[in-house]
Amino acid sequence: MRVSRYFLPILRDDPKEAEIVSHRLMLRTGMIRQESAGIYSWLPLGFRVLKKIEQIVREEQNRAGAIEVLMPTIQSADLWRKSGRYDDYGAEMLRIKDRHERDMLYGPTNEEMITDIFRSGVQSYKDLPRSLYHIQWKFRDEIRPRFGVMRGREFLMKDGYSFDLSAEEGRHSYNKMFLAYLRTYKRMGLTAIPMRAETGPIGGDLSHEFLILADTGESEVFFDRGYLDMDWTTAKIDNDDVAGLQGAIDEFTSLYAATDEMHDAAEFETRVEAGRRVNGRGIEVGHIFFFGTKYSEPLGCVVQGRDGEPITIHSGSYGIGVSRLAGAIIEASHDENGIVWPEAVAPFKVGLINLKAGDATVDKACEDLYAKLEGAGVEVLYDDTEERAGAKFAVMDLIGLPWQLVVGPRGLADGMVELKNRKTGERESVSPEDAVTRLAGRK
Amino acid sequence: MRVSRYFLPILRDDPKEAEIVSHRLMLRTGMIRQESAGIYSWLPLGFRVLKKIEQIVREEQNRAGAIEVLMPTIQSADLWRKSGRYDDYGAEMLRIKDRHERDMLYGPTNEEMITDIFRSGVQSYKDLPRSLYHIQWKFRDEIRPRFGVMRGREFLMKDGYSFDLSAEEGRHSYNKMFLAYLRTYKRMGLTAIPMRAETGPIGGDLSHEFLILADTGESEVFFDRGYLDMDWTTAKIDNDDVAGLQGAIDEFTSLYAATDEMHDAAEFETRVEAGRRVNGRGIEVGHIFFFGTKYSEPLGCVVQGRDGEPITIHSGSYGIGVSRLAGAIIEASHDENGIVWPEAVAPFKVGLINLKAGDATVDKACEDLYAKLEGAGVEVLYDDTEERAGAKFAVMDLIGLPWQLVVGPRGLADGMVELKNRKTGERESVSPEDAVTRLAGRK
């Protein structure tokens, strides 16, 4: 993409309304724009990040055997009355009357609807187990939305639901999602720690939150340093090996970890030796629940067992805040000059900077690099404008693409261009050919 | 995907509420499920089709130089009051009050918001031209929603917006979108005819609808048979060649074509000789508008010209009904046995039918074919269940995958499997190796 044809409304100054760094940087880089309190448009740069996050979430859901569907944003109030949550949910639920004065609502979550869909689509024990998920906009009418996309009113969430014949099988489905979540965050360059959690309005008695560590995080967290050394990615875990998976999950949850809400200072001191106690900050980026028959019972989600007997389905639900992750990743990865994107979610991999647009030699070298990189499948944002070099550098640092490729007349005279690593700040002088080889190789 | 692990709730009987064939087939095949009047869930099979349509739309928008963003579903009423459309829009607009009693609405379209986004992001004539688009759920509170996703209340739409410095340049942007639309429909296997249209609540004085031909279409259409012989795909058109593109669009709109609303019987008879007059039925699948300064004026969308003078932006808007297309394609492509998917939008390319699940030889041959096809990037729905053959055939015909690959003990004894073309009904006996080669080759 050429900057001269892109829509990249960078703000010169820090927006006053932004209290936290991700909100400030998302506004400044023109990733998002506030339309109403807690409601944002995703501008081109932000949209690309959102899509990358969404795609990683999707791939790991599919890998765990979950099947994608898409439920509507607007729901009828009737189902929520059946489950008893219509009145429970309070003012956070955006209630709507349609032109026929029917009670509708903008879905804050989908336990009722998916249970009803599943109920009407299956008859027999043979149709289980299944996990269904969707990635859809939700609305929660927060009384004081703030922190940008970290606590918005309209937000994109992946919510998945498992359906099993027994509590034991349900636990296995829960474990599969647990593992899928760890893999999802890892792919985004995040260190996520699972913590036992309250179940709140979703219900049930087994629940974990996943928190990523960020100095600017909203929650205080207490955990055993051992979590920082665990590497789930190297563990060979077979999703279908029930005992093996349970063992792995038991290991991943064996050390102490709690948010301030669940923290028990006495237990922390007993279980964790002093040198291993970490007291830091974290951001919740996922929450999973196993609630058994809480929704299947009132909604009549029953199948016929092997001998004809009725079996009430056991379920769990599994949420990841997709739009929230865009902010959370920035909280976890930025410096004084701007965002530092992990490669997997960066809007572009490379920022190509033309130091002398209009100079035939430099233009030609840039066009050539641009074409070769794009041809090799590398996503490039090419700054071909006539801005001065200093401004171009500042913008590239601000928007945080992993690599900057700087092309100017002086370097070219020696047949060289400069490759800068945004994260480490390292710069190297390389030939244009080497630059392409290296950037195309590091997929 | 294995049927034994999929969620494919096929209905045995025709749903009574469905008046038109696409609605009936989408419900029967378990593509969608009605949640409220005019509000649907997209179940796994339908979701796959929706995503394929969306992706084709996206690719052709990007190819035309449009940039993707994502605006929220919920909008503040304030912007609509500025443009004067808040009161104009009537009861079709879903009006909402949030917990602070602020007037909000579920966006039926986005002219106001995108104009405001663009206004706040640009200063100078150098920032134009630009086209921005998004693919987002919309809501129009139809008084009597019907025909399934063809006239729903919550629907997925691609809406794009162009921003230019003059009416002439705006016309060029309009023409680029015109061409992008023709390419989009063609890729989905549809014959679309552009027809001059009323501008309705969007406004402006230049507008075209795109209608695809389907015997079951909602609108009566009158057109010159010559349209059926025009092939836009072979035309070499350079998007940046202003006169050349205008010439092509003039040609594509030179023949008579009108919906009943705009039809002029006398003109039809004068301009079209008797043997070339076609009176058929069609379905609207896109609508484009050029409305100049209608929104930029009240919303103050002005940039600084080359000499510092203020220039009010000229705009157009361009809509494609993404979810509606799923229904429209079925209306245009089905037979008495079910859907006949064009390959580009089919949920899977191949249905692999195991005629004797449980038989070691047949299972092995199927597993082998399944692995090889998936390995070659072919999307396969593998019916590995113990259903009887007749039921499997009926379901595969009903869901309309382009190819069926039938594997049974008798054929295998001769080293053969059967390849069936869903559209033509042709069957061929081929070796498993040939089947893979042919299906992997026909991308």
3D architecture notes:
The structure is a homodimer of 443-residue chains. Helix content of chain A is 33%, strand content 28%. The first copy, chain A, is globular and about 80 Å long. In chain A, strands 3, 7, 8, 9, 10, 11, 12, 13 and 16 form a nine-stranded mixed sheet that branches. Chain A has a five-stranded mixed sheet with strand order 20-19-21-22-23, with helices on both faces. With 443 residues, chain A is of the alpha+beta class. In chain A, α1 packs across α10 and α6 crosses α8. The relative contact order of chain A is 0.13. The model of chain A has no long low-confidence stretch (mean pLDDT 94). In chain A, a hairpin with a 2-residue loop joins β1 and β2. Chain A folds into two domains: 336 residues, Bira Bifunctional Protein, Domain 2 (BirA Bifunctional Protein, domain 2, 2-Layer Sandwich), CATH 3.30.930; 93 residues, Rossmann fold. Chains A and B meet through β1, β2, α2, β3 and β4 of A and β1, β2, α2, β3 and β4 of B.
